[in-house]
Amino acid sequence: MAMDLSRITVRPFKLSDLEDMWLWASDDRVTYNTRLDTCVTKEQAVALIDECITHEFKKSICLDDRSIGIIWVIPWAGDAKFKADLGYAIGFNYWGKGIATKAVKIVLSQAFHVLPYLKRLQAFTLVENKASQRVLQKVGFQREGVLRNFFYAKGNFIDPLVYSFLPTNEIPNLD
Ligand SMILES: CC(C)(COP(=O)(O)OP(=O)(O)OC[C@H]1O[C@@H](n2cnc3c(N)ncnc32)[C@H](O)[C@@H]1OP(=O)(O)O)[C@@H](O)C(=O)NCCC(=O)NCCS
Question: Residues in domain N-acetyltransferase (predicted)?
Answer without folding.
Answer: 8-159
